[in-house]
Design brief:
The protein is mostly helical and 199 residues long. It is built from eight helices and no strands.
């Protein structure tokens, strides 16, 4: 009887220690970062899916802008070739590579939109205007998804660094997760600027 009571007491103490050490918090915050990351990836994929139609529409009006069109196509291929898995969240180098590829795609899209300014017929094309509107909306959703991801990572990283939960992090291998870097923030989160109302 006493042996059984001692066992229950040890289990109770272990449960209290584990719940107080933040183990369950790590589970929840880790899942929150994965969910937020999934939304970032979905929005980047949505943008990538719009690009072939956008490039083809521009090509119909501005086929001699070959260099710009190829740059967008190449940047899209590079961005979509990167394997995007939740493991990227624990690999700062892979995360940086993903971030850089998306930044290069944003830059190429900005150049494409600037080219479109020279073609009034293109700017007046209904398909192009619709694609531009979808792209602008997607860029806004990317910005929101990135902000949510950054907030989720911040919550997780604070838990991983704060005492005493940092001991749990060390014990169970919960490492600090990378986030979007400030120097790339402007290039990645700025939607391509286009004013189709200019004459």
């Amino acid at each position: 009887m006493q042996n059984k009571f001692a066992r229950w007491l040890v289990l109770g103490v272990m449960a209290a220690v584990l719940s107080g050490c933040g183990y369950n918090d790590f589970q929840g915050k880790d899942e929150a970062t994965k969910a937020a990351w999934g939304e970032v990836v979905n929005q980047y994929q949505r943008r990538a899916d719009l690009i072939p139609n956008l490039v083809n529409t521009v090509k119909g009006y501005a086929s001699h802008e070959r260099e710009t069109l190829e740059a967008v196509t190449k940047a899209r291929a590079q961005a979509t070739s990167i394997q995007v898995t939740p493991e990227v969240l624990n690999n700062p180098a892979a995360f940086q590579k993903f971030q850089q590829a998306q930044g290069e795609l944003s830059s190429a899209l900005s150049r494409l939109m600037a080219v479109s300014e020279r073609y009034p017929d293109l700017k007046a094309d209904t398909s192009f205007r619709d694609l531009q509107s979808q792209l602008e909306g997607t860029e806004n959703r990317i910005t929101v998804a990135r902000q949510r991801y950054i907030a989720a990572v911040q919550d997780y990283n604070v838990l991983a660094r704060r005492f005493p939960t940092n001991l749990t992090a060390m014990m169970f291998g919960y490492e600090v997760k990378p986030s979007f870097q400030v120097e790339n923030e402007k290039a990645i989160s700025t939607a391509p600027a286009v004013d189709f109302n200019k004459k």
